[in-house]
Amino acid sequence: MKIDKPTVIAIVLCLAVVFGEFIAYSPGMHTYSAEAERNGDSVDFQITSSVSSVYSAVAFDNGGYAAPLTIYIYKDESYYEFMDEAVDSAGISPVDIGHAADQMVLLLGSKGIMDSHICDSSELAELMAEDGRSKGLVVLSYALPESIYSGNAADPLFRWLSEGGSLYWLGGPIGRFYTTDEELVVVDDNQELFFGKKCINPGGTDIAFSVIDGDGLTDGLYLKWNRVAFALNTDGIPGAKAIGFSQDGYSSVSMVPYGGGMVCVFGGACNRNLYDDATQVIASGVSCYSEVIEIKTGTVNRTVHDSIDTQGYGGNIVLYVSIGGYYTIYGRAIHEI
Amino acid sequence: MRFEPGPALRALVMNPVFIILVVGIAARLALFPLTPNYDSDGWALIVRNIRIGEGLYAIDNYYYTPVWGYMLSLNSTIQGVFLNVDVLGMRIPEVFPVEASEWMLRFTATVTSLAFNAWTKVMFLISDLIVGYLIYWIVRDLTGDKKKAAFGLWLWFLCPLVIAVTSVSEMFDSFAVLFALLCVIMIRKDRPFFAGILFTFAFMTKFFPIFLLFLLVAYLLVNHQSDGKAKRSLLMAALGAAFAFIVLMLPQIMDGTFSEAFLFITSRVGADGVVSTFNSLESVAAISVYIVCLIISFILGWKLYKGGTKDLDKRFFMYSAIILTLIFLFPPTPQYLLILVAFLSIYIAASEKGLMRSWIILSVGGALFVFGSHFTLALSMGAFSDLVSLDSVMSLFDWFQASGSSFSPATILYLIGGVLEYIGILSIVLFFVRKGHSQRTRDAAAESG
After folding, report:
1. ipTM, two decimals
2. C-alpha distances out from residue B190 to A6, A233, B134, B158, Å
3. CB interface of B with A, residues 233-262, below 8 Å
4. Among A167, A220, B77, B189, which residue has the least CB neighbours within 10 Å?
């Protein structure tokens, strides 16, 4: 067979595509790592990346708070049964709940949370019976099951939070509904139950135009989703911390203390940008108790070494390293350095 | 001392092919800084997903068949490892107002970097160059005339629509054209196995080449009418196509994301990643047009086969131009038209200059449509360079979009571009209807005479 120019072009192109396929699907093709160790009054860290990319290293002291290392994502089995009612009543945007949970697991995994589980209502009830410390619950649904939340301060959910659990709420008004086997029940005083006051965005404002510095956390965590539907106004809530973006007093990410635990509310409808931000916040271990020590940013091209002065801070220092900037490709929180 | 160019250099500079290439490359490079961020943000997210190690489909945002994703994968590795492109894009708070726009298209304040955009567009520039070369090669092969071949190259490489799609839209349709043309060449060279492979690569990039299937099969059968190798060649082509399909889809077959690779056929996907099934009137209309076109392409394939070897190449490219025009009777976005422009360029350069007017209307209309539909084009420049300030870009945005008013400059440009583009398509249809009518009249006269 005579090899002419078009044939050579065709062979080269096909091989290029197959090589791209090999890169896209070969495990370990791209490698990243982050390590840190205490060195006297400072924390030395090393970041490596096989591709040139921006990074940030956020060091903070979490005080007595135990950041979640195990994440449970609630996949509401009655989601579609009452969805239309919730859409009409609260204006939520429906999602494919199973797919959304899967996306959260994958994104959390890319940011160092390898221990995440999708759970149904019975597993949720079992979780509430356990110690909440170092555990996080992610709710993508508009409602929780009656077994853990029925609009009463004595519900298992509040006990779990008080004991150190972390609740992350996305895509709807927190605590507005619970489900029984037969119906969707509205909780009228949900805001007071969770926050002691009315503070949830009642609607009308969604896009936020102002950046909240949040001690540098908005930039340091590369937060991007500037939506405040269902978000909180944290003004006057003791110990609350707002990061991300704000409009009319409502913040895209609000973290509020509850006993020894935390309630974190993300604004806006569920979508990929929100999943990116939520997984970044969850994986970082940042909380309303966090005191930012220092944030270092730069470009990693193979390896970067640096250190952060931690003199004067306690023993619960966390360093969260993320690589990739607004397109985060790697994250790792190094706890109790 | 004065520089005196030698005869070889003078001949090169005066060569029309050289001039076409220089002008075409310069025009593309000049437009590189302009980018509609909605799509480039999508490409950056795919790069992110690949770098995470989750392939193309596990994490949302890739809704095409995999070939383009594999190219992006290779490109991103080159960018990340060899070119040190460290920032794919940024969220720019000053640009948030574009997301509040109520105009007919969605915009994003996530702005991709000039470096990422440029190196992604370099791929398309290379693809355009190779397509131009293949058009040159085919026209020269058909006519033996280098001037006609250069004319074909000109029609492709200096086409305003092709330049706009490559250098501004940052869309990958040129690659589907590239594989389709290579497939045609392999069929003409009687390399059926390789042609089958390239056909799969073509329609797995963008699905429009599928409408050439019956014509390609007919060409292959006619080529082997006399030597008795028709069935064997057809089998080889089918084997090549199947082999390529398995190779390309192997990762998705193994990781269970096979169905996601065909979401663009079975579903419409919103920007938020929510998938809704085909139920809109628009979708039904598109499907209807495509089904009718598949039937017409079968009829054209049958006509090509029955016509035998007489004017086989001429008829093949004419029928190709016809079917690729008909599929766009359902109004296309400009980048889809690249495959039509390529086959039209060959047909015009080799046989039929009467279509020049249509080519001009189509390509100018399509290019205007590109600029009209994306007036956030300068955001990357504003965010990542000192060439223009973000304030200026946002002022331009406000003026151009005029707060979503019905008769903003954007809307007018968009409408003019869209109407011209569609007139271009209709005029090609009209041309072939007239041509068919006069051919029938001539045939009838010949029979009666």
Report:
1. 0.94
2. 13, 71, 17, 31
3. 244, 247-248, 251, 255
4. B189
